[in-house]
Amino acid sequence: MGTFQFARSSRPLAIALSWFFLHNIATAQLPAEPQVPAKSFAQGEVDAQRSRVYIRVGKTGFGHEHAVVGMLKAGQVLLEHEENAGELIFELGSFVADPDYARQYIGLEGLSDPATQQKVTANMRGSEVLDVARFPTANFRIKSARLTQRKSSKGLAVHEFSGEFSLHGVTRAIQFPVEVEQFDGWAHVRGSFKIRQTDFGMTPFSKAFGTIGVANELQIFGDLYIAQR
Predict the structure, then answer these.
(1) CA pair distance 113, 131, nearest whole angstrom
(2) Average model confidence (pLDDT) for the chain?
(3) Distance CA 81, CA 142 (A)
(4) Sign of CA dihedral 195, 198, 200, 205
(5) ∠ CA(28), CA(130), CA(27), 5° rounding?
(6) Which of 131, 145, 147, 190 is the most buried (most CB within 10 A)?
(7) Residue 65: in which H helix or E strand, if any?
(8) How confident is the model at residue 11 (pLDDT cuts 50, 70, 90)?
(9) Integer Cα distance of 136 and 123 in angstroms
């Protein structure tokens, strides 16, 4: 799956090359998070420019762990609603593998070189895995976003999201907790859930007779900014 660079002296060059690569691939350009939203938002609307989806991809055999990051096409989340609580639409063509900030977000060490990023991204978007040409989006239809009595490890309010996640033409029920931080008319919502690729008709990438590959299970992290007024 490629080599990872750990030497401190190579870090600035690797980062520069990584960003050059990202900004020169169509549909893979991830803008920096703006400090102030660029437009007005309706209550419950997700700021798709600031929000991100991260995926932790495990390894099998002699493979490497990967961090994937992508953007939302659109979304709405109505917190504390017991039914019809919204929907998130993910833009799968924006998903790229192993930019440095994505690896840091999910806690992976080391850097991935640009050639490996390009190779892993192509494999991920290809017909055996996401098949972006046939399935350009995924979505999470949120049936409820119920406020619980629990607090997160940071002392933040915890909501329970329940609904149906659709990916690669397959829909599965999911349920998971999220922590919600309120600030200046916004809710910063963070949570994660796990899926198995085979449950959604996808084949985990492998090569060399299975000695190098990625794990079936994926952990998906949502990092969302939702307007509250």
Answers:
(1) 24
(2) 84
(3) 10
(4) positive
(5) 15
(6) 145
(7) none
(8) very low
(9) 15
Place of tokens 């709405």: 76
Give the relative orientation of helices 114-125 and 11-22 as an angle to the nearest 10 degrees: 40
The token duo for 84 is 């019809």
pLDDT band at 30 (very low <50, low <70, confident <90, very high): low
Residues near 132 by beta carbon (within 8 Å), at least 6 away in sequence = 92, 93, 125
- Give the tokens for residue 193: 């859930």
Strand partners, 173: 164
Q: What's the distance, CA 108 to chain centroid? A: 15
How far apart CA 81 and CA 79 sit, in angstroms, is 5
Quick one: pLDDT at residue 207? 72
Closest CA to 19 of 94, 112, 106: 112
3-state secondary structure of 204: coil
Total residues found in the chain within this entry: 229
User: Measuring CA to CA, which residue among 79, 75, 58 is closest to residue 178?
Assistant: 79
Structure tokens at 124: 């991920």
